[in-house]
Amino acid sequence: MDDPKAPGSRRDPQAGLMASAMFDAAGSSDEVLLSRLAEGKGRETALPELFARHGDRALRLARNILGDWQTSEEAVQDAFLRLAEKAHLWRGDASFNTFFTKLLVNVCRSRRRRGHDAIAKGNLVGSPSQVLGGVAASSRITDLARQMQAEELRRTVRGALDKLPEKFREVLVLRELEGLDYKAIAEIQDATLDEVRIWIYRGRQRLRAILEGREGEFFE
């Protein structure tokens, strides 16, 4: 019987045993792919597949938190590279989306605090082009960023989000733009549901004031 405290207790028991050449990454769930990474396998199959599925959303999230396309591109690459290193910490009690989003938010937070040159620590598993697929990840993400920059309707809101304090900006991005529920946001932020509710409420108030030109009503 699986130890509920063991990393990846929900993992598919066959995921770590199947040879990479025989493994159908495209036909597997996110959690099965994460299981293989947690077993130290599937980096050449599981990680590129997860990047293909979630790279677009990850870039949107990073851009909305960081406010800068180049830094966001680098943060997304860092986050997927770290995913291969940190997968063994997944304990099966959270979805892939929650696990990875928390990791990505932490990468973005670190970059905001330490500057654009912050890099992932530890032993990386390879360059982005080696790890995230045959086409260089930086090229793919850059193309996507250019498409997203054409979304004129979001520019005003993004500019206002950039003016919010970090905790308000993050929870509003996760709630309003990513559509996550309060429980998932609380898990990602290591906060209580009440704290998340308060941050979202206050963040919405401040965002509305900024959009209406009343940002001077609030003080740090």
Features:
2 domains; 220 residues; Arc Repressor Mutant, subunit A; Rna Polymerase Sigma Factor, Chain: A; mainly alpha
Describe the fold and architecture.
With 220 residues, the protein is mainly alpha-helical. The protein folds into two domains: 129 residues, Orthogonal Bundle (Rna Polymerase Sigma Factor, Chain: A); 67 residues, Arc Repressor Mutant, subunit A (Orthogonal Bundle), CATH 1.10.10. It is built from ten helices and no strands. The longest helix has 21 residues. The N and C termini lie far apart (52 Å).
How would the blueprint of this fold be written?
Elements: H1 30-38, H2 46-66, H3 69-86, H4 96-114, H5 128-131, H6 137-148, H7 155-162, H8 166-177, H9 182-189, H10 193-211
Helix pairs in contact: 1-2, 2-3, 2-4, 2-6, 3-4, 3-6, 4-9, 8-10, 9-10
Q: Domains counted in the coordinates: how many?
A: 2
CATH topology of the largest domain: Rna Polymerase Sigma Factor, Chain: A
How large a portion of the residues is in β-strands, by DSSP E? under 5%
The averaged pLDDT comes out at 76
| CATH level 4 superfamily of the largest domain | RNA polymerase sigma factor, region 2, helix turn helix motif
CATH domain class of the largest domain:
Mainly Alpha
User: From the 3D coordinates, which CATH architecture of the largest domain would you assign?
Assistant: Orthogonal Bundle
Largest sheet data: none
Strand tally is 0
General shape = globular
Distance between the termini: 52 Å
The helicity comes to 55-70%
List the secondary-structure elements in sequence, H or E.
HHHHHHHHHH
Summing up helix and strand content along with how strands pair, one would put the structural category as mainly alpha
What is the tally of helical segments? 10
Q: Determine Rg (CA atoms, Å).
A: 18 Å
Low-confidence stretches: 1-20, 116-130
